[in-house]
Amino acid sequence: MSDLAGGFVPLSPPPSSIASSATRNSLPQPRRTPLKPGGTKESRLIRHVDQQLLHIQRRFAKRDPSLGHEGVREMDEEGRMIEQLNDPATEKRLQQSEEWNDVQGYAGFAEAARDVEELIAVIWVSGTPALQVPYLINMALLTTTMIPAFPLAPRPLFRLLGKLDHAFASLLVGRDVSTDEILPGFNTGRGVSGTEKVRIKSLVERTRICVVEVVNRGEFDEDDDLDEPSPEDTDMDGALILDEDDGPQDINVDDTEDDDWNMQVARVYDKTLVELGDSMDGPPIGIRTEARIGT
């Protein structure tokens, strides 16, 4: 990832169990004011995010074929499939870059999650709702596409989904749900549109079902996490320094009880579900979870 992304160290669950972790899904401090529409910084950010998003898609397309799973096809905001990597036209588009042959495919979900988390941090630091909402929806769609394509890697999976949950819930109410601070750009009236709320709701429902299916599949990545990037300065309007959090801990998935899994799955997008229920004048949306197959 580019130096523009900055650095951050997401927290990982304690060793006792995944369900007892309640991962602190912190996001970096955003800039104080949104980027100027059409300005140089906004253009640079859009170019960077687009390039890194395409890079992630390329690495996913060239993932280790021995994993034996295919991604879930998802729709973009215009109703187009964003996961058609077996389609010749899509493959041709991805191959147009000279760097295509030098791109190494993902060996597991942990690698993909790290790249996605870094890009989410860049998007969040922008403090610009007009960019944050659509880009984070696309990142969440891509994440849902990738989840079933790899063996389950619990720590990076639930950490990544926790960050997306934190971001969406905060954007829905216009304030950080952890600190209660007003988010940049929301004092001007820009919020999440009704159409965007419907898309987020649909995405949340599909993701929760997808996670249940992957957990029930019972295939786990033995090397389910990677060293996190070290914190460093980021040049998004004023040398913002991201604080270093606690390092990753080990998780023994074999010792995790079914109730623990059910609890962790139930937490997927739980904050977003609450805010969607409030903002759309309806009850929070949920799904029923079941014990893993074969247990």
Automatic annotation (TrEMBL):
Domain of life: Eukaryota
Entry's Gene Ontology cellular component terms: transcription factor TFIIH holo complex
Region (Disordered) location: 1-44
A Pfam family this chain is assigned to: TFB6
Name used for this protein in its record: Uncharacterized protein
Organism from which the protein derives: Aureobasidium pullulans
Lineage, opening ranks: Eukaryota, Fungi, Dikarya, Ascomycota, Pezizomycotina
